[in-house]
Design brief:
14% strand, 7 helices, two-stranded antiparallel sheet, alpha+beta
Amino acid sequence: MFLLAELFQLRRVGLHELPAHARFLTFRAPAQSTDPEASDRNWTAAVWEMMIRKACGLKAKELKFAHLPAIGRTTVSSSFLMKSFETMNAGKPYSQQVKPFNFLLTAHVSLFGHPEGVDPEKFHLITPYDSDPRTWLKEEWIDQHSKKRFRITTQGHYGSRQTARVKTYGDVVTEYEFHPRQNARTHPAIPAKSKLWDCCNGGT
């Protein structure tokens, strides 16, 4: 909570809007665009502002990037991964091929979003690195296990024969905000309205 307090300034939210025990949870919103790929990481401030305001019963703006697919970055760190790109590399000049230690993108499939007929335990989508979020839904993605190619979508709730429904940044934030928390005294996972719920309601 100390780190959160460092990010806040009282004039942003309005001190009078918060309960007394949560008044230190006022926020300084980022001045720049909230792009999850931004190097300045200002998008994390927008996420915290949204969660805190919701937990305290205040109006919250939707994240500008909530609709984008939640894409991670990894590297070609093994021969197993390199084999995934044999077909893609075929016939291309070396300079245009995916090479060892190049960056890759990796997609996170939603709970019921796997394509029909695949084994969810052995399904991991990767594609050559591209920092432009506008291209991610247009790319062909490769399952590193079967080497088959698929498309991704953020629409609906389920995958189809050739398409995986992947998580959006909004999905990931919601999962973090509402995931069951561990109670230190009783140990079972207890559903909580958010990780900030106790704080904004006078708990510990």
